[in-house]
Amino acid sequence: MFKSKKYVFIISAVVLMVLMLTVILVGCRQADRVSHNLSLEADNFNVARKLTVINQRTDTILFQMTGNFSVKKEDDGDLAVIGENEDGTYYKHFIYLSSEISYIVEDLGKTGVNKHKYSINFNPRMIVPIEGTTID
Questions:
Q1: Total number of domains in the chain
Q2: Domain membership flag for residue 89
Q3: Phi and psi for 96 in degrees, rounded to 5?
Q4: CB under 8 Å to 6, separation ≥6 — which residues?
Q5: Residue 84's beta-bridge partner residues?
Q6: Residue 66 — φ and ψ, nearest 5°?
Q7: CA–CA distance from 134 to each of 64, 102, 124, 127, 128 (Å)?
Q8: What pLDDT is recorded for position 122?
């Protein structure tokens, strides 16, 4: 009789653990699954994105990039933009993030454009601060 109580306890514990695991796995929200799938598609260069880097102190857009690329925050705090070229090679751009620099990544969805092409736009005032003068 003592052995049967032990087996009932073990079976009950196993059933309870299986039930808890089922609740945990089924309890994943649809939004979590969709977020994971969208991130995976973007990291495989299948989704067009637009990256905008902003200087918060001056409210100036410093940099914009549009194309199919992956965005990852590196361990040192830099932002890494990784993409694939047509010849199968890859590129990686770094953007230094500071307390005054932030970024926004917009998901533009799947497009019919070439996934290997991208465009980069810099704010020319931030690169070459030249003021023109007129000579009479």
A1: 1
A2: yes
A3: -75, 125
A4: none
A5: 90
A6: -125, 135
A7: 32, 37, 20, 22, 18
A8: 61
Q: What is the pLDDT of residue 121?
A: 62
Q: What is the distance between the alpha carbons of residues 70 and 93, in angstroms, rounded to a whole number?
A: 11
Mean predicted lDDT score pLDDT of the chain: 78
For Cα atoms 49, 52, 57, give the angle at the middle one, nearest 5 degrees: 160
Closest CA to 105 of 77, 81, 124, 83: 81
Q: Which two tokens stand for residue 103?
A: 């970024």
Residue 113 lies in a domain: yes
For residue 121, give every residue at least 6 positions away whose Cβ sits within 8 Å of its Cβ, in sequence order, or none. 63, 64, 65
Question: Is pLDDT of 132 > 70?
Answer: no
Write down the pLDDT at residue 126.
58
Gyration radius from the chain CA atoms: 25
Q: Tell me, yes or no, if the pTM score tops 0.85.
A: no
The two three-digit tokens of residue 49, written as one number? 């994105």
Q: What does the CA dihedral 120, 123, 124, 127 come to, rounded to 10 degrees? A: -90
| Tens-place pLDDT, residues 53-80 | 888 888 888 888 888 888 988 888 889 9
**24 inside domain:** no
**Are the beta carbons of 70 and 79 closer than 8 angstroms?**
no
